Amino acid sequence: MTVQTERSATPRIASAGLAFLAVTSVGWGLNWPIVKQILTEWPPLSARGLTGVAGGILLAALAAMRGQSLLVPRGQWPRLLLSAVLNVSIWMTLMGLALAWLPASEAAVLAYTMPVWASLLAWLMLGERMSLARILALLMAFAGIAALMGGNGIDASRAKLPGILMALLGAFVFAIGTITAKRLPIAMPLIASTALQVGIGCLPVALAGLLFEHPNFAALSAQGWAMMAYMTLVQFCVAYVCWFAALERLPASVAAIGTMAVPVIGVLVSAAALREPLGLGQIGGLLFTLAGVALAARS
Fold it and tell me: What is the DSSP letter of 217?
């Protein structure tokens, strides 16, 4: 089924888009503490890049099994490469490195300032209407994120500053990638398109890791291999397919605001698994963020 055919589907499109967005949020939210933990065994570029390449290969095999062509149509290569760089390469590199300076919960919160930039760019570049409900949803969700940041005690100390800057820059670039994917859709089947974007986007990250980090496969424990498997299968195969599917079915601003559930999940799981802080301030921020996401879904 091609992208054009999927877009022509019927009134179930909106609910399907929200379902895809929910899967993406859970998959990416759980991934933050996992990536933080894997950094105790493996360097960031290698962990993110090699699992991404493996995920791209698995998706390519799935696309072939479903009869989807992996041949890029004439004129689509610039769009494919641009989306791969913005949505995968830069995002994976900056966020992987940011976790070297920041706790997983703080990195997740900073990364998902992305919807602020994406909503503004969607209004300016795509002409998407910013209704009062959508603006209120954005403000509510961002206020919740701000409360989470304050609750986790983020400060622009010299020790954290590189991670903070990388996370914010990654958020802005991913927002540009979101708008690019919406404005310049790739005329290919969904799974095949995602396979190429993930594989191509992660390849330079993996090569940089092999060149500069010299990862040692023997250093991975059984738990480390399990986390690498999660990153490959869920983060890249499941969540990225669902993200691009959600973008096909939802306005870019709504999809972006919906991803604010990711740091909520990331903070909760990081508190449980990594013993990162979770007090009343964080809980209030989580509830406010989720309320904003719920309002965005209804707008």
Answer: G
